[in-house]
Design goal:
The chain has about 250 residues and is α+β, with helices and mostly antiparallel strands. About 10% of the residues lie in helices and about 25% in strands. The chain binds calcium ion (3 copies). This is Lipoprotein.
Length: about 250
């Protein structure tokens, strides 16, 4: 009898663990999204797949493309590439640098994805100061023509000159993205069961720290002992534990 009970318990626990499954909930429920603009975190080492996929959608969609003939000089009257959710196909001067302008609607961090890793300088049109690169790295996304991205902290209403090139073929496609449009909240998953602690989270457009997940509501995130306890687990009657985190036992 005891043996049967143990087998049944084991089977139920297995079912519970199976139910946890891979963490694939694509869209976490909104909770903290309505918050102030957030600059790129110092801890960010690369942009997350969410914002990169978003940029790739624009680069892959012909109707999102706009052509711009870059100016041969760095000037605030160069053509603008400021409209959101567009892929700008720049025609650069032959074998030389060309300039366009970017006027952000909101203060914050902007990512400029592009099809070639060529010189790319963002200049404050008012002060002529070069805007520091907050982050830059290569991009590798299947089926996507974008290969490189840099992030710059920009101020709303300022006209920035984007000087880039020379580029192969005298052409470069640039997809600007506002980081705040693509942030995701990730929850710490200390026990690694795919469900995070709702109280400990980061809201970022970057690759999340290891051990974070988009799923939350783990009511016991204690390493080892909390592994079988989460919203995906099957409730086991009589074990004194709220296995599925619904606030009650059976
Ligand atoms: Ca967990
Ligand atoms: Ca857990
Ligand atoms: Ca329960």
């Amino acid at each position: 009898m005891m043996k049967m009970k143990r087998i049944a318990l084991g089977a139920l626990l297995s079912l519970g663990l199976m139910a946890c499954g891979p963490m694939e909930e694509p869209t976490p429920e909104p909770l903290f999204e309505e918050q102030d603009t957030q600059a790129l975190e110092a801890s960010c080492t690369s942009l997350g797949t969410g914002i990169t996929t978003h940029a790739c959608v624009h680069s892959g969609n012909p109707t999102d493309h706009l052509a711009r003939t870059a100016s041969a000089t760095r000037t605030t009257s160069a053509p603008a590439i400021s409209t959101k959710h567009k892929a700008y196909d720049l025609a650069l001067p032959s074998g030389a640098e060309g300039s366009v302008t970017y006027v952000p609607a909101t203060t914050g961090s902007y990512a400029f994805y592009r099809t070639q890793n060529v010189p790319f300088t963002v200049i404050n049109g008012s002060t002529s100061a070069t805007v520091a690169v907050a982050l830059s790295h290569t991009v590798s996304s299947s089926g996507c023509s974008l290969v490189y991205v840099s992030v710059h902290d920009l101020t709303a209403g300022t006209t920035y000159i984007v000087a880039t090139g020379p580029a192969s073929g005298n052409a470069l496609t640039v997809v600007p993205e506002f980081l705040d449009d693509s942030r995701t909240r990730y929850y710490q998953d200390a026990d690694g069961d795919g469900y995070g602690n709702s109280a400990t989270s980061v809201y970022t457009a970057c690759t999340p720290p290891s051990g974070y997940t988009t799923q939350r509501f783990d009511c016991n995130d204690t390493p080892v002992s909390g592994v079988g306890i989460n919203p995906g687990a099957t409730e086991v009657c009589g074990n004194g534990i709220d296995d599925n985190c619904d606030g009650s036992q059976c």
